[in-house]
Write a structure and sequence with these properties.
Rossmann fold; Dna Ligase, domain 1; D-amino Acid Aminotransferase, Chain A, domain 1; 3 domains; eight-stranded mixed β-sheet; six-stranded antiparallel β-sheet; globular
């Protein structure tokens, strides 16, 4: 089994933390694990103790590797004397790549081309789940509650910032959240309470994506998260609540400080729990998700209304991440969770293999 980590996105470091946790919890008696690290420049490297090398920033001893987009060729090729030679045959790939070029359907499309089993959502769910603007539009079509938003492009920000701000202010009221459409781990997100904040937030988000989601904010909402697992018959965990140590659940609050608090289970009524779990499964199915996802909610303290915030098709797997913690609290230990994810990858591959791609005309 190949485990892929690192990558070209702004969540490179988070990917390494998740990979560390997954590798330490996989049963070595079941899996022959091949580590493949992807650099910030997109180079694939393998060899001895790849994750350690990436975390130490000492990768000179690692060897370039590749896979080729030929159906049925599941070999990992190693570069030797200027030529690639097949070295290891992989049965399944476990992508632990958060954000762009890993969680957005790009890697999934490549793995579909070669026809290998892989953990997690397919191309469609990965791409829709990653793009916050498109994701909200899909959920609206299913009448799943989401907050109002505007979609702004980098070009609009750069060519006429004032006009972009006026358009946003005519549709939304402060506080407003500005987010890159295709990124996670709260990278590039700004909470804006006035016009000055909004301008700065738009420029910050434009650093990370050409599409920017500007979302209606709530005053001190409760942040609820639910883990979903499965293919055509998904199951859902108990909900958990994040109590941010900062104004909202920023990158720093998630990974760099211990000021945030995770409440598992979330202090909700039975009715609220059932409703959030129902919407989580509905959201999962709306984008045709498979394998796994974490569905995040915002609960308005004043109205008690619940809104889907986003879905993470490759959620964090660090020791402090909500996805494995929620399953642990729901009776599924970390190691068993990883086993189940790999089983689901093979199940989805078997289902894909039943599809006919050649039209056979009846005589």
């Amino acid at each position: 089994m190949g485990i892929f980590f690192g990558g070209r996105s702004g969540e490179h470091e988070v990917s390494l933390l998740s990979a560390r946790s997954i590798i330490s919890n996989l049963d070595p008696s079941k899996y022959n694990l091949i580590e493949v690290g992807i650099t910030r420049e997109g180079k694939w490297l393998s060899g001895e103790r790849v994750l350690d090398a990436f975390q130490k920033g000492a990768t000179a001893h690692l060897q370039p590797v590749a896979m080729f987009p030929q159906a049925g060729d599941h070999h990992l090729y190693r570069l030797i004397d200027g030529q690639y030679h097949p070295q290891i045959h992989l049965d399944v790939v476990f992508p632990v790549l958060h954000g762009t070029f890993g969680e957005d359907g790009t890697l999934q499309g490549f793995l579909e081309l070669i026809g290998i089993a892989y953990v997690g959502a397919g191309v469609l769910a990965s791409s829709v789940g990653m793009d916050k603007g498109l994701f909200k539009s899909v959920l609206r079509s299913y009448e799943i509650p989401v907050l109002d938003h505007q979609l702004i492009t980098r070009r609009q920000v750069e060519e006429d910032l004032e006009q972009a701000i006026r358009m946003i202010e005519s549709a939304l009221s402060y506080p407003i959240f500005v987010k890159p459409a295709n990124l996670g781990s709260s990278v590039g997100i700004t909470k804006c309470r006035n016009r000055s904040d909004l301008g700065e937030g738009l420029y910050e988000a434009a650093r990370y994506d050409r599409r920017i989601v500007v979302e209606q904010g709530l005053e001190r909402p409760r942040e609820i998260e639910v883990s979903v697992l499965g293919n055509d018959q998904p199951v859902v965990s108990i909900p958990g609540e994040v109590v941010p140590g900062e104004d909202f659940y920023t990158y720093s609050a998630k990974y760099l400080s211990d000021s945030s608090e995770l409440l598992i289970p979330a202090p909700l009524s039975d009715e609220q729990t059932r409703e959030i779990q129902r919407i989580a499964v509905q959201t999962y199915r709306a984008i045709d998700c498979s394998g796994m996802a974490r569905v995040d909610f915002l609960l308005d303290r004043q109205t008690e209304r619940v809104y889907v915030s986003e879905v993470n098709t490759i959620p964090g797997f660090t020791q402090i991440s909500m996805y494995p913690k929620l399953w642990e609290a729901s009776g599924l230990p970390y190691t068993k969770l990883l086993d189940r994810l790999i089983e689901l990858a093979f199940e989805r591959k078997a289902d894909r293999d039943r599809t006919e791609f050649h039209y056979r005309r009846e005589e």
